[in-house]
Design brief:
The complex is a heterodimer of chains A (111) and B (119).
Chain A lengths: L8 E4 L5 E6 L11 E6 L6 E4 L13 E6 L2 E6 L8 E8 L1 H4 L1 E3 L3 E5 L1
Chain B lengths: L2 E5 L3 E2 L5 E8 L8 E8 L6 E7 L4 E3 L7 E6 L4 E6 L8 E9 L3 E5 L3 E5 L2
Parallel strand pairs in B: 2-11
Antiparallel strand pairs in B: 1-3, 3-8, 4-5, 4-9, 5-6, 7-8, 9-10, 9-11
The chains are: A mainly beta (111), B mainly beta (119).
Chain lengths: 111, 119
């Protein structure tokens, strides 16, 4: 069982928006502004999409955005495209004892 | 550009020790703020952070696996090595190394190496 809770799957049609939630505790998501999101296509390595809750690395489309409220972080993908279909994992720093915890992953299907 | 590549055995027997090497380029592990982590992913399952080594040679381990893990670095060779003792079939996974920004995120990943534990 993963430390952070994500929905197993979400879906949307091209052009629509979807939001993936990531729920933790005050010891991880709620306690630090160090939430990151990773996209993973089948058979590929994860790719950083969002870091420090809402920052986008260079090269990541601005259709991807992140936010946090309390112990829950969210990844929103607007203007869905076929290539967005992938697994998405959230991750949070959890202090100098546990360090990092991941979510169980969410499979995004573009209908 | 930043690249990382994992290498090691594809198959190990139960109770054996696994040694994985991460060879990287495009950054120096002697630069303040730079770190390398190991992260694994069992087939069809979620990611799990294992260990980190930083520019100052400080080492941090997953609480649940710390008795089995050792991470080290060779700055001159741009390599980070992870050893995991007493391997078990549940340790079957793809093992990734990733450049890590301390306390924050994993910005570059290797392609991963699948390790199967079986007799």
């Amino acid at each position: 069982q993963s430390a952070l809770t994500q929905p197993r799957s979400v879906s949307g049609s091209p052009g629509q928006s979807v939001t993936i939630s990531c729920t933790g505790t005050s010891s991880d998501v709620g306690g630090y502004n160090y939430v990151s999101w990773y996209q993973q296509h089948p058979g590929k390595a994860p790719k950083l999409m969002i870091y420090d809750v809402s920052k986008r690395p260079s090269g990541v489309p601005d259709r991807f955005s992140g936010s946090k409220s309390g112990n829950t972080a969210s990844l929103t993908i607007s203007g869905l495209q076929a290539e967005d279909e992938a697994d998405y994992y959230c991750c949070s720093y959890a202090g100098s004892y546990t360090f990092w915890v991941f979510g169980g992953g969410t499979k995004l299907t573009v209908l | 550009q930043v690249t990382l590549r994992e290498s090691g055995p594809a198959l190990v027997k139960p109770t054996q020790t696994l040694t994985l090497t991460c060879t990287f380029s495009g950054f120096s592990l002697s630069t303040s703020g730079m770190c390398v982590s190991w992260i694994r992913q069992p087939p069809g399952k979620a990611l799990e952070w294992l260990a980190l080594i930083d520019w100052d040679d400080d080492k941090y381990y997953s609480t649940s696996l710390k008795t089995r893990l050792t991470i080290s670095k060779d700055t001159s060779k741009n390599q980070v090595v992870l050893t995991m003792t007493n391997m078990d079939p549940v340790d079957t996974a793809t093992y990734y190394c990733a450049r890590t920004r301390i306390s924050s995120y994993f910005d570059y990943w290797g392609q991963g190496t699948l390790v199967t534990v079986s007799s």
